[in-house]
Design brief:
The complex is a heterodimer of chains A (about 450) and B (about 375). Chain A is an alpha/beta fold and about 450 residues long. Chain A has 14 helices and 20 strands. Chain A folds into 2 domains: about 5-60 and about 385-395 and about 420-444, Urease, subunit C, domain 1, CATH 2.30.40.10; about 65-370, Metal-dependent hydrolases (TIM Barrel, Alpha-Beta Barrel). In chain A, strands 1, 2, 3, 4, 5, 17, 18, 19 and 20 form a 9-stranded mixed β-sheet that branches. Chain A has a 6-stranded parallel β-sheet with strand order 9-10-11-14-15-16. Chain A has a 3-stranded parallel β-sheet with strand order 6-7-8. Chain A starts with a strand and ends with a strand. Chain B starts with 7 loop residues before the first helix and ends in a 7-residue tail after the last helix. Classes of the chains: A alpha/beta (about 450), B alpha/beta (about 375). At the A-B interface, helix 6, helix 10 and helix 13 of A face helix 6 of B.
Amino acid sequence: MSSLLIRNGHLIDPAAGVDALKDILLKDGRVAEIAGPGKLKSANGAAGSDVQTLDAAGLTVAPGLIDIHVHLREPGQTYKETIATGTAAAAAGGFTAVAAMPNTNPVNDSPEITRWMLAPERGACVRVYPIGAATRGSKGEAINDFAALKAAGAVAVTDDGRPILKDTIMRETLAAAARVGLSVIQHAEDTRMTGGASINAGSSAFKLGLRGMPPEAESSLVERDIRLVTELRDSRVHLHVAHTSTAAAVAAVRKARRNGLRVTCEVAPHHFLLTEEHVGLYNTNAKMNPPLRSAADRDAMIEGILDGVVDAIATDHAPHATHEKEVEFENAPNGITGLETALGLCLRWLHKEWKLPLGRVLSLLSAQPAALLGLKGRGTLAVGSFADVVVFDPRAEWTYHARETRSKAHNTPFDGWAMQGKVRWTISEGRIAYSSPASPTSAA
Amino acid sequence: MNATAVTPSVRRQLQTPKPPASPFPYNPGSLLSVQDLSLDAISHLLARATVLENQDPLTRDRILLKRRVALLFYESSTRTRTSFELAAKSLGADTTLVSSLSSSIEKGETLKDTGLTLRALGAEAIILRHNSSGAPWLLEEVTRLPILNAGDGMHEHPTQALLDLRTILAHLDPITKKCHPERSGFFQRSEGSPSLALSQPVDLVSADTLSGVTVTIVGDILHSRVARSNMFLLPRLGAHVILCGPTQLLPDSATSAGPGISVERDFETALRQSQVVMMLRIQAERLAGLQLDLAQYKDAYQLTGQRLAAHAPAALVMHPGPIIRGLELTAGVADGSQSAILEQVRHGVAIRMAVVERALTAGTLAATSGAPSDKSSSLGSKGVRA
């Protein structure tokens, strides 16, 4: 099967400026042709050939979603997740490309591991983009060979989870990455201020008797990094701030952008929806890093998304085994899953509640993250692009149940939450990677 | 495509979903937090403490005869462990102690597995002391047994707050709301005159039982579960709680822990307003790198005989123990006439008898009477407390 025809859908492709009813023909992994309903020449002429038809009447057709911040746990922690299960969850959530963080075991700090992750034997069902470690073993001391990592397939570098604290190393990382055209992603946390902490340093922390992470631990490192970018005076330098969670950090990024710097940021759904109150009585599925913050910080995330300073929604999908989360709150690992809930939450809240136009929601989930990491041919359905498509019912309301997940992990605070927008098909490079159980495909 | 985004002023009024209601406590016999207890439940516990304390030991030990109670201790303890054990044994229960240093916990067994093992061994309730805040909630969730929180990390120590309340009530004149440290019995609540009749304790508490009473808690508030349980409990009975200590040990955010709580950095100013002073130990084991100048600390916050005489000559002096003589208070104050420290320990046994009895009978009472027990109000407790 080499061709797929998606008929009668409402195509929204923000990057190409399309927002209309269209038929779209996918051929050999690429977008071959787009035309008004029933107007596709090749599809009509080639009736009887091996063209599979998907009827998307009443559905939205959009570029496949792109998550630039996921943890696939492979190599090394396959009891939590594998590349195969993580990408299956991605496909179920409408994602056709995910960027995998290097905090695997061993750390992805070499071309060998990068290539190993990309090998067909891993069984990825959507496109995986490895992100390489910035320093050897993510120890923050010796910088890796970025050119070699890039040649092997890495799309950015980071020491995610083990932020680079030394000014000299961070400066060198930014400069070296810029020379080979890679972005530097920083998990902004001054870990000297967060030892033993497991929750935001706010009123909940005191009430629950837990040590808190001050918001300044995030914002001060963002400000430090922006200062380094400023000092480097090199327009190729790109700093991307991962999972921004505090008002001060978003304000710092906003200011840097006004000053013409190439500084971008992402926000995770849990940081624009939940606050420290959602930790409740020690719910380890509401424990992540950065932690859920105050209502004012949460509002600042929404504001940043609506006014455009936030460049992407990224989930920080961080699967953990059930037994790892069934422990004392302080001892539980950080992180929650997110791939299957991102679209449903974004449509329910950003679009329906806060009136962000559908096109902009989709752009934050596809076109913008693709542009941010320079993923060519992704994030758009212009003719010639990769045939990465998500087809969903934008009006469908449904309830997410963690037990039905494709991921190996169930650690989500959104179990039982109302979602809007149900994925019908996810198509990765022309191949159906996910099809919702209620809607079998029909061959024409 | 960039149109129709709402303005920031409008946006801030929009709400995201509230946290779901908490299912805790699952078991009506559990005591995880003082916040789970209604005023009726507190009155009932105080009343039972009095009855049990005065009951003939030979009939009292029929109440929980041969019932099995496990004490699971991840931290060292003298008072709490011994008084829980004596309390359970006074009611006839069999107790067994599992401590982290002489059990499979040392080999890496999790709290969940330890709890399930104790349940399989026949434990009908578990009394848990743990170094991690929130551990009792986990233990209850996995075992569904009645769990008694005997102190969790920096979070709560509900039986300590209840015994502190009983100690305060023992010295409080219910009419004048003045404390009388020199008295060692209870005031008669029904007395028309403020005469100091010593007989029946005040067991029926209401939202204004402690109105007009100021309780100052002094010292290492940040790391203290005793402070938290008291600041969550006493204001509900009308008390004003003043928290007093240096910023490193008492963040400003503490006032947001609930109503009726204020922060006063100056010890003597706080003392002058207080009918009750609770001194706390500096918890060296939880300081986590925090640097503290002890000489400076003693200078500002040590309760000395001189300070007490000058600023709070009629106040009741309390301390949950263990005390460090010469640090948070002088030996003279600890042994002095205003000190209720050892009396607190005695009240601990009575309170814990009532709490252990409730743990093993709350479920059956509700089942047999069909009427909601005194736990009904607590079952509606939220994931986020008001």
